[in-house]
Amino acid sequence: ALSPFVLGEKVGRLRWIAVIAGFVGVLIILRPGGEDFYPVGVVAVIGTAMFAVYSLMTRLLAKEDRFETSYGYVAWVGCLMASAVGPFVWQSPSPDQIIGLLVIASTGVFGHMILMKAYEIAPASVLQPFSYTQLVWGIFIGIMVFGEYPDGYMLLGAGIVVVAGIIAMRAR
Description:
Distance between the termini: 14 Å
Number of domains: 1
Largest sheet: none
Number of strands: 0
Structural class: mainly alpha
Helix content: over 70%
Number of helices: 8
Oligomer: single chain
Shape: globular
């Protein structure tokens, strides 16, 4: 939704409708003001907003800097931010956890490089809807790993968000 203002990208009426519908889907999931509202859900919304800002900045810098330079900035900032909070929450990992951390770090680096390359090539308004698949994966992992099943509101809201993302991606 911010790409026309920050990047000067053209966003048509159908994409705007999809953005608003996606936000409505998120509100259905969170249910603000309802008895099932979890305030910690706001953290997820803030995280999503920060990811949107990050996506815009990545696209903006891709026009100016080389890929390696942009990736270096992100790596250093991430390292510094993790180092700032690390001493307060540090727990020594077990050997099994170290292997898991190495796998996560390796796949994270690779995935992040692909994401940055994508923002270099394609408009943010085209790429952003792909992040909506996180809802589907979150529901799947919640069921398979934690045995948590979504309620009707979650499924309705997630469905709206996913459909809105598909519409936004396909709209010209």
